[in-house]
Amino acid sequence: MRTQRRGVRLAWRICGLLLTVWVAVLPLMERSNPLRAAAFAAQPQGVLASASNMTEAQSAPSRYLIIAPDEFAPALAGYIAAKQAEGYDVIFKTLSQIGSSAAQIRAVILFYSPQFLLLVGDVGMLPAWPSRNGLSTSTDLYYATLDGAWDYTPNLAYARLPVHSTAELQAVLAKWADYRALDGSQAWLGRVAFVAGDEANESIHNQMIEQYTQPAGFDGRFPNNPQPGGDRLYVHAYAAAKTDLAAALNEGRGLAVYFGQGSRPGWMSPYFTAEDVTALTGPPLPLLVSFASRTAELDEEQTSFAEAWLLHPTSGALAVIAAGADTTHTADERLERELFHGLFSNAAAPPPLGEALRTAFLAFGGYYLPGETLVKQYYEMYSLWGDPTLRLWLDAPRRFSLSLEPNTLSVCGGLASSPSVEVGLASSLTQMVALSLLNPPQGVSGTFSPNPVGSPGSAALTLTIPAELPAGYFPLTVQGLSSAFQQAAALSLMVRPAAPSDKPLPLLPANGAMRVSLRPQLSWSAVSGADGYDVQIGLDADFSPIVEVFEDIAQTTLTLSRELQPSQTYYWRVRAKNGCGAGDYSPVAQFTTLPPPGECPFGSQSELLYRQSFDAVPTDGWLLQNGWEVSGAFGRGGVARAAAPAEISQKTLTSPLLSLPDDASVLAVWVRAEMAYEFGEPPACLDGGLLEISTDDGQTWFRAGSEGLLNPPYEGTLAVSFGNPLGGSPAWCHRRDWSPLAVDLTAYREQEVRLRFVVASGADEQSAEGLALDEFEAVACRAESPVRRLAISPAEQSAILPAGAAASFVWQVSNIGGQNERVEISISGELPADPSPPSFVLNAGESQEIRVEVRLPDSAAPESKYRLDLTARSQENSSVWAAASLELTVQRCGLQWSVPEDIPPLSAGQDYLLQIVLTNTGNAADTFRLSAVDQRNWRVVTPDVGPIQMGESALLYLPIAPPENAPPGETNRLRLTAHSEACPSFEQSLERLLVIQGSRLFLPVIRR
């Protein structure tokens, strides 16, 4: 007995001694482990591996670390944003930021301790680890084992995306994006395929079908249609061939699993290689599992069978689980069993693929003794290629989809109506679905027939809408409920007014405008609720007859396609319309078109201001210089003419000073003459003539010739060769017999002008008769009766204001007629507004400033618009009026931060300047105010921001001062908030982790 006790005591002492040695040696062994030592040696810049921040990183929910070569960063931006929208805390690092060796990459993974890891790039771009258990293939396992020297169990869900180029990456990301857009009701997602190479491989598949896929409702098409539980593409039992496998995959499957012999080219039975994969055309498999040897070798020099599936640009697979080395039958059966158990433990909320594989690994290890080589080899060889966060639609057979046709209804207010909608249902399994209408406005109801309805199938929804339902937008929801699933579809109901209640206002041409283009552009104010506009143009205010009718114009402008008659007064009006009818026509506006060149406008008479016949050399101020003379030319005597010799010359004929009248009754001023010229055959333009105008008694001259100012217009541009002094100028340069010349000087009323005719030639060995002028006269076109006309400027104003803001707008109302007017101002629109002053007397030629105060509602939605129309009307004659419009847009405030994601370790007692870039993403300029809060009350000084224009950025520096007594490794959480001055309710915040330089001693944590 004593001997036994002594033996027990001795055993306890030996165990105690061994434990003491273990505790003492373990940290040294951790550091001596090449993986762990590499991690410590390759500590990434700006990353401090203290116990506190490691614990914080490990506890962060759903942290997703993505590591990629730098050239892949732009292509990954959309995927990163999508994952952030799903709720993942995504951390993206490029190799230039962290280093490109396996040890450096692992150091970053160790620091962040994510739940999910994605390595982007083939092994030639982003390295893997060599096997530690005798395998010839490399592995990514040791990026995920973070627990010690002999750790071989992954601590996180990891995957690799072995792309070789940006084009391959973009193609894979596009497939992933398409999958994220699915709702699980697609029929092909409810079908799975089990492929077995020989009789021994069929048993495990049958077990998975009976235990998981058949109870879940999955089916297939081989060997029977339907085949409960999924395709049984068994070579031995059902003689499945390559064509049967391809047919199933091209039809689409939500999951495919192969069990059999494999090699680097592909599967042995049925024989299916990478070439067969590239020929697939169906939707990509969400997951392909290959329990076969060597189908996923990591090899820089050649593409593996698994890569062919993943890198297929449109088909293939989204994710692949496969082995890179030789496998065993029994172990593969065990791994398949545990993988299915992990995937189907909760089919309604399946785990991400990476986590499902990690869970399967842990359970697989339970079949063997701890540290058994086979387990380590399986952990090394089996890996996930694809998205580790991807989830399968394992409840797809129970799901159904809803579609509405149409999904938007538009009805007219004031009328009872009963529109109908077809509700379509689709599903892979037949099921009954109960339909209901959610969120109907008061008085609106819906009836479904039939209800419940079988899916796949359809039902008719009939809405009952009362006449008293007000105009507006009403979002409705059609809901379907089966025994296991709920689905909804949005239905938009737009109730329109019976017809637009507001009248548009004609803006341009302004009412009463004279000398309007023969193809004018008409514009008018917009009306809320209008789908289009009708425009009528007539010859009198009663529109009898109507000259032009334009219907269903989508915009608020219209340019006539054909010319109107010259010197004609036209009347026009516009009305708004929508699907419910048309509103009332606008007030009638009028305009008068341009007269023919040189003629007086309609309603005016010609008044001679000056005349010169050139029967003799003029003595009233004309200057004939450098060769101009009065003689005969072009078959006439007594004309002013200048020849174009075959030499460099410039000859000028300058008129006397012409005083042009300016009063409201003068509608136009013309200079008219008879002109002939000959400068050579077209298209040559070696010599020529042109006209210049001076308003400062000849001190400066500018060339006439803009459209409408000169008739006939210039024919070409003078050649710059041969030294022509006016080379490059537009000019008359061909041949023309005696014909009228008309120069429009209306724009120079109330000024004194001189005209100068210039003939220029070059040393071109060509002599020409030149240019001749006769019967020169200036005339004023005076209205036969006093003109009555008002004008408002500007015709259109717009502004962007914050909700609840008030602003003042100013217009000038002018009496540009010849008679005094009593003017009344009126305002119509969606906001209350009063003009100041509301009425006044305007003498001819006078102007009055009008001021209008406007305030937007506090509840105005961002980007919404409000319109006001202002009309000035004569109290004596209602047809004399002018209009202007104001459009207000509610300001949308927006901000984008650019702040370093990783702030380098700070030094205690030393200031650090944090660089911040603020970008205004709103629709108007805004001023932002910064505030800062941190956990440890360090001194943080927020800089003044100032106004930032729309789309522009401001660069700021935020001083951060850690205290001198801050201990090494201390962390601080800084929260920055930007507040908008324009939108008080808008603010945006972000947080950054601050760490004091140094480290704290910590013991490694033993998790197992």
From TrEMBL:
<dbReference type="GO" id="GO:0006508">
    <property type="term" value="P:proteolysis"/>
</dbReference>
<protein>
    <recommendedName>
        <fullName>Fibronectin type-III domain-containing protein</fullName>
    </recommendedName>
</protein>
<feature type="domain" description="Fibronectin type-III">
    <location>
        <begin position="499"/>
        <end position="596"/>
    </location>
</feature>
<dbReference type="InterPro" id="IPR029031">
    <property type="entry name" value="Gingipain_N_sf"/>
</dbReference>
<dbReference type="InterPro" id="IPR001769">
    <property type="entry name" value="Gingipain"/>
</dbReference>
<dbReference type="InterPro" id="IPR036116">
    <property type="entry name" value="FN3_sf"/>
</dbReference>
<dbReference type="GO" id="GO:0008234">
    <property type="term" value="F:cysteine-type peptidase activity"/>
</dbReference>
<dbReference type="InterPro" id="IPR013783">
    <property type="entry name" value="Ig-like_fold"/>
</dbReference>
<dbReference type="InterPro" id="IPR003961">
    <property type="entry name" value="FN3_dom"/>
</dbReference>
<dbReference type="Pfam" id="PF01364">
    <property type="entry name" value="Peptidase_C25"/>
</dbReference>
<dbReference type="InterPro" id="IPR029030">
    <property type="entry name" value="Caspase-like_dom_sf"/>
</dbReference>
<keyword id="KW-0732">Signal</keyword>
